[in-house]
Amino acid sequence: MTTETSATASAESTTESKIETKTAGAAKFSFEELEKYREEAISDNIKLREKNSEYKKQMQQLETQARKGAELEEQLTKVEQQARQRVAKAEFKALLKHSGIDDPDVLKLLPLESVEYDDEGEPSNVEAIWTTFQESKKYLFNAKTNTSTAAIKAAPEPKNVSVDWNTLSDEEFDARRAEMHKAQRRQ
Description:
By secondary structure, the chain is mainly α. It has helices at about 1-25, 30-100, 125-135, 145-155, 170-185.
């Protein structure tokens, strides 16, 4: 048993020497000092979490503002496009009127989407589009009248319906009344 006891004693001394070797270079702290450092670490951790939370809130606000900014940019782009189209339409309306065409449906035939704009937002190729349009739709520009205004001018003038019925003779009265009944049946 002495060999066992000596083996156990030698194992214990080896373990103690390992512990002494590991702690030999480290500073020794008292319990109070360790508790103080632990409380400081906890306090620092809480402060860092609060700052992290603040940063997250700020990040969310920035992301919200960025989304709103992107939405506003989209709206601005749409408004600019609409304004440009209005300017182009006004240019073409003026050209149509100058050509003697008063039909607003002709404006729908113009390729408004192919209008190009300069740096200031003004249409730059309206004249070229107008020339191409005139060449491709010559029937609209012949003899200063177009088909729609000619059709309107060819329609008969409406008869004067304000008549003093008391002054009409019996035959005129019957004839007018018959015309009114025919007109009502047609409608």
